[in-house]
Amino acid sequence: MPYDPSAFPPFAVTVDLVVLTVRRHALCSLAIRRGEAPFQGRWALPGGFVRADEDLSQAAARELVEETGLCAHDPAAPAQDNGAHLEQLATYGDPKRDPRMRVVSVAHLALAPDLPAPRAGGDASNARWAPVEELLQQGGYGRDGEPVAPLAFDHAQILADGVERARSKIEYSSLATAFCPSEFTVGELRRVYEAVWGVVLDPRNFHRKVTGTPGFLVPTGGTTTRQGGRPAQLFRAGGATLLNPPMLRPEV
Amino acid sequence: MPYDPSAFPPFAVTVDLVVLTVRRHALCSLAIRRGEAPFQGRWALPGGFVRADEDLSQAAARELVEETGLCAHDPAAPAQDNGAHLEQLATYGDPKRDPRMRVVSVAHLALAPDLPAPRAGGDASNARWAPVEELLQQGGYGRDGEPVAPLAFDHAQILADGVERARSKIEYSSLATAFCPSEFTVGELRRVYEAVWGVVLDPRNFHRKVTGTPGFLVPTGGTTTRQGGRPAQLFRAGGATLLNPPMLRPEV
DNA sequence: ATCATAGTCGTCTGCCTGACGATAAACACT
DNA sequence: AGTGTTTATCGTCAGGCAGACGACTATGAT
């Protein structure tokens, strides 16, 4: 059959972002309050249309900068600071996922260190870091006692998939360091694992594991007492990306 | 900003399939010869446009049936036979990946047992199972001495990603059984791992591992000598989907 | 009868993990 | 200055699992 431009239906293609960070010992996601219908006033994941001339990863990186100011880590140039990890998550294309039209959304997952307050087009009240637990509970009540509305569209599913990806990926990769500032202690890294997995880990075994894995951490020589207690060595992320053998997530 | 239908560029959305199987101790992928420009006469992955009223996974399952006659395993009803595993792989949307227009392709990965000859729209000469090694080598010569043209579009990248997904996924899941018929022996399952990973495994340690993992294999009671040698017990896939601890892929 | 092939059961050793004791170095009190 | 608290770090020990490999079994082929 010859090429026929009318043989396919037109789609809108967007990127949505699951931006995760660890704040106050909790795994948090960036959420944006919708200013327009549908789902006006409800919380949603940041995202937007893919432009005609840009790749999907470019679109995701652009949205990330627009929403957070974060520069996505280019895998080819992992040297720069303040860079978040960014990877494609999955694509969602249910015909009814957007009531207005047929939209296919390519969701991306970003892991970022703890940041100052977010901004959404300059309006801070319409963007926030919310614990994923709070965003994912349906029809419950938040910590402030107010009723919690579920996320817009299918964003609860996307967020859940992103969280699950993050949880499994820090098992066998060194990605947990993407949640840390450029220099961090073993204890800070452990608190990242504890927050993402929602478990408590043995500090001694964790220390043995991460310091004993070649290429995972490189000491910077400095120490810090910002967590209180005995001064802790500072490290930065080493070159290794894969953890072998993996970090074991405790059984339920 | 209000909703404006002209605010986004239109895209064509397709699904492409990486259909993998194990034939004659080699990991093979389904390839279709293109009958039209661009890349006319070159091999490509099967795929097609997503219809206006179908979900992405529905489109992938439909293409799979059209190309192979395989029914995709519905995760909710894993009882049926002859069902292939089907999952979303990744989405490819480089603006220049299709010279005709802006196409975003949602690639899916299917794992199937060894099948009779494939068909492509009824024309068997335009569809074949080819060793992935052969499809991925660029500018070399195939086993028959003929020069090998690279796959059309970015399908070499998609195939490589699918193969890598399959290789890593059989480590920590029981998905390798998707390459086997409904009843199989431990040795046949081992040859699947050997073909997908391109390694040689110790039959004794492999046997201990798979029979010692609860829920991985359930004996059917029958035996077979179809591989020669001493009769081997027949098994079918158990209910377990996750392998913990995982099957370890030998170091390079 | 002998051989080749493939399957199955054991043994041993080394590595890694989980559990947990012990020590070290800071700060906050009194 | 001493005492308690907190966090970091080092060590020890037992159990589980994987890799290496020996031994035996049950078929078909010659």
TrEMBL record, chains A, B:
Pfam families: NUDIX (PF00293), WHD_NrtR (PF21906). It comes from the Bacteria. Coiled coil: none annotated. Keywords: Hydrolase. Residues 1-154 form the Nudix hydrolase domain. CDD domains: NUDIX_NadM_like. Gene3D superfamilies: Nucleoside Triphosphate Pyrophosphohydrolase, Winged helix-like DNA-binding domain superfamily/Winged helix DNA-binding domain. SUPFAM superfamilies: Nudix, Winged helix' DNA-binding domain. The keyword Hydrolase applies. Transmembrane segments: none annotated. One of its GO terms (molecular function) is hydrolase activity. Belongs to the Nudix hydrolase family. This is DNA hydrolase. It comes from Streptomyces yokosukanensis.
